[in-house]
Design a protein that fits this description.
Blueprint: H1 3-63, H2 72-90, H3 93-107, H4 113-171, H5 179-192, H6 197-213, H7 220-265
């Protein structure tokens, strides 16, 4: 080869070598990127699996929560336990946010889009459902706590009042001959005993509402207290009605005697 031809061959060889090295680097870069993508995908799925399992367990517990208790202290315990579980879930928020961000990155890759999008939708769906159900559960526990607190206070006060009323009926003197005194006794029965009827109805209505939220064995003590209240009220009502009839009959007799006496004096 002439010197000129040799230089041309050398140049072509050098150009070919550059193209080869460029292709080699490009292939190497793509291989590295692919390895990194595979690694990122594997890490994403490895971290996704335990988080999905944890969230699925949490949502199942919230879908089928234990019955709300009927006693104040037990409801407070349930509320404290529920809030503690919420704090544990809050600790998962950084992992949840990181996986969502990584998932959005992986969705941009055609080979990962379908799988990642499906799992990401599942993750977000579980997270949103947990938040919603947890909020509803806490709201229900707080509502029942308020209702139970008022109910038990009202029951205690009403039972005490009924015992006092029983003493009033028991201690009433026998009907005398003074119509004004007999009328006073009748008014005592109406004002101090029969006036409790509305309060008894209110407490029973509150108990019915509480039983709707606390079915089953959780409301056993509530039912016992309600039975005691209604039995006490029924007994008092019967004695009061009997006493009222006796007083009204005595009043009529006294008034008749007075009218007869008045006619005799005319």
């Amino acid at each position: 080869l002439s010197l000129q031809e040799g230089a041309s061959v050398t140049q072509r060889y050098a150009d070919a070598e550059k193209r080869y090295q460029a292709i080699k680097e490009e292939v190497k870069g793509r291989a590295t990127a692919l390895d990194e993508a595979v690694s990122q995908s594997a890490q994403f799925h490895d971290k996704m699996d335990p988080l999905l399992e944890t969230l699925e367990g949490a949502v199942q517990r919230l879908r089928q929560p234990p019955p709300v208790a009927a006693e104040v202290e037990k409801i407070r315990e349930q509320l404290a336990e529920h809030r503690a579980q919420g704090l544990e879930l809050d600790k998962l928020l950084p992992s949840f946010s990181a996986l969502c961000a990584r998932g959005e990155e992986l969705i941009g890759r055609a080979d990962e889009a379908v799988s990642v999008r499906s799992r990401l939708l599942r993750l977000r769906s579980l997270w949103d459902e947990i938040r919603q159900r947890a909020e509803e559960r806490e709201g229900k526990l707080n509502d029942v706590l308020d209702l139970a607190g008022k109910f038990w206070a009202d029951v205690a006060a009403l039972l005490s009042t009924l015992r006092d009323s029983q003493d009033i009926v028991k201690d009433l003197e026998d009907p005398g001959v003074d119509p004004s005194l007999i009328k006073q006794q009748i008014e005592v029965l109406r004002n101090d005993v029969l006036s409790h009827h509305a309060t008894v109805d209110t407490v029973n209505n509150a108990a019915a509402e509480l039983l709707e939220s606390s079915p089953g064995d959780e409301a056993g003590n509530l039912r016992d207290q309600l039975d005691q209240l209604n039995q006490s009220w029924g007994s008092l009502l019967l004695k009061t009605q009997e006493r009222q009839k006796l007083l009204e009959a005595a009043l009529q007799q006294v008034l008749q005697r007075i009218r007869k006496l008045d006619r005799c004096l005319v």
